[in-house]
């Protein structure tokens, strides 16, 4: 027997046959969700769907395409979005509507099923009878595929699969192959999260937000169907809200950490993150440390396991004003819709795109907290150890920092929020921000210059920002940023 029987055309054919079953005439119900539309992405999607071949141009774009990341964005864009949805759906069904090992992987199939179920009215609106039947048939086949995946016991730690399969059982007409809602199994999968054990993938807070939104949609589906969800679902949602609340800023957005993108505010509003002291514990488990004083939030990326690109990166937000940021990242939807975004996503997942020392291969940090408004961090590298002390004071509107570095050949970069930066005659920096009052940066022990930077928006726009680059003159550098100037 071949080691990879599912890769053969014969195996794919018989697997597809096994997924056949009754074609639903309609859904029992579909969850009603919304996402913030994006004019930039709508325009890009219009150009994309005007092409004869809509195949994505990179691996990252292909994964986004097969997850249907584009569907929630286009769903809120009126007739322009609906037309793009019809074209993309028809193209996907023609090319990939039947089982294929590559495009029906559980990591792609699970989010795709959730999005198809949530937007089934738009997917089928304006379609003729055969195309409507094809959409419903493919959705049912994918749900059966996920049920088969779970029955065979593969990768039982993958929570999105059981969430998608359970939602399908609530939305689709009763089908022996899809199965019942199976609340005990759902509770079993949710129990680790309900007890505070976060999935490893949730280090990327955007993944945590998306999967928490899926859990919220599932919870509402149980309520609408007047069925009892397992108690672990509510407990898991509480833990998720606490974790995401740790990233929440005073403006109701999320702090911009390296390689992360601004959240969909509709999803953020739906799940209702909670800002509580317990959030800091969950953040530290996932490789983040934070100081919060009033409406000011400071956060540092400690690094964790293999996700080290942003290690040492920091961010500072006060109220509605982001002072120190990273360069951000395009959203998966932007990567799927805008060709050049995949290359930008790679470029922005580097140390230079974070506010920190421009040095690769930093190991995860050790961490201490002398008081509620102080933290000490230590990073090891091939050049030696970097020690940093941060002290936040909301009453004095300032962040004070002491740096101990092993070599002078390390530049410290601070990307600033939208605005202008200007060196003064004393070596300090005056910062005029687009939002709120300005700020002033004073520096001791380093030469300073202003360089251009960029900010990547979730919708695929790349805008110019500025960064402050400090070149140490010795082993110790002290700097302070004071806002409200």
Number of strands: 15
Number of domains: 2
- Structure class: alpha+beta
Task: Tell me the number of helical segments per DSSP (H or I, 4 or more residues long).
Answer: 16
Shape: elongated
| CATH T-level topology of the largest domain | Glycosyltransferase
CATH architecture of the largest domain: Alpha/alpha barrel
Largest pleated sheet: 8 strands, antiparallel
CATH class value of the largest domain: Mainly Alpha
Which ranges are low-confidence, i.e. pLDDT below 50, for 5 or more consecutive residues? 1-6
Lateral strand order in the biggest sheet: 5-6-7-8-15-12-11-10
Q: CATH superfamily of the largest domain, called what?
A: Chondroitin AC/alginate lyase
Chain-averaged pLDDT: 86
Gyration radius, in Å: 24 Å
- Proportion of residues in β-strands: 15-25%
Query: Residue share in helices?
Result: 25-40%
Distance between termini? 73 Å
């Amino acid at each position: 027997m071949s080691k990879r029987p599912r890769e053969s055309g014969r195996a794919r054919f018989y697997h597809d046959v096994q997924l056949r079953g009754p074609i639903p005439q309609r859904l029992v119900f579909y969850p009603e969700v919304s996402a913030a539309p994006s004019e930039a992405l709508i325009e890009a999607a219009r150009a994309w769907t005007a092409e004869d071949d809509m195949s994505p141009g990179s691996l990252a774009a292909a994964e986004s395409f097969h997850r249907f990341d584009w569907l929630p964005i286009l769903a809120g864009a009126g007739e322009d979005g609906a037309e793009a949805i019809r074209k993309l759906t028809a193209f996907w069904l023609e090319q990939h509507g039947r089982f294929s090992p590559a495009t029906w992987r559980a990591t792609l199939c699970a989010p795709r099923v959730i999005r198809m179920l949530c937007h089934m009215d738009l997917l089928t609106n304006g379609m003729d009878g055969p195309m409507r039947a094809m959409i419903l048939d493919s959705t049912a086949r994918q749900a059966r595929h996920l049920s088969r995946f779970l029955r065979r016991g593969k990768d039982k730690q993958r929570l999105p699969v059981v969430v998608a399969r359970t939602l399908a059982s609530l939305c689709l007409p009763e089908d022996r192959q899809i199965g019942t809602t199976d609340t005990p199994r759902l509770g079993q999968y949710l129990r680790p999260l309900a007890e505070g054990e976060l999935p490893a993938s949730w280090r990327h807070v955007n993944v945590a937000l998306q999967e928490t939104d899926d859990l919220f949609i599932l919870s509402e589906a149980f309520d609408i169907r007047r069925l009892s969800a397992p108690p672990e679902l509510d407990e898991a949602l509480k833990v998720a809200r606490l974790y995401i609340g740790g990233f929440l800023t005073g403006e109701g957005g999320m702090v911009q950490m390296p390689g992360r993108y601004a959240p969909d505010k509709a999803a953020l509003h739906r799940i209702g993150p909670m800002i509580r002291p317990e959030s800091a514990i969950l953040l530290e488990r996932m490789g983040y440390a934070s100081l919060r004083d009033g409406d000011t939030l400071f956060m540092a990326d400690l690094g964790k396991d293999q996700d080290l690109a942003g290690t040492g990166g920091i961010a500072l937000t006060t109220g509605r004003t982001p002072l120190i940021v990273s360069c951000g990242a395009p959203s998966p939807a932007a990567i799927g819709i805008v060709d050049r975004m995949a290359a930008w996503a790679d470029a922005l997942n580097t140390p230079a795109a974070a506010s920190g020392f421009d040095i690769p291969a930093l190991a995860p940090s050790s961490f201490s907290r002398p008081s509620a408004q102080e933290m000490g961090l230590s990073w090891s590298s091939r050049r030696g150890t970097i020690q940093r002390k941060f002290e936040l004071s909301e009453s004095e509107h300032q962040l004070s920092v002491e740096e101990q570095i092993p070599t002078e050949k390390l530049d410290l970069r601070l990307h600033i929020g939208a605005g202008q930066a200007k060196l003064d005659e004393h070596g300090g920096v005056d910062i005029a921000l687009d939002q709120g009052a300005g700020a002033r940066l004073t520096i001791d022990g380093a030469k300073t210059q202003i360089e251009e930077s960029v900010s990547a928006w979730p919708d695929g726009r790349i805008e110019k920002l500025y960064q402050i680059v400090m070149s140490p003159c010795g082993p110790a550098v002290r700097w302070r940023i004071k806002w409200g100037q």
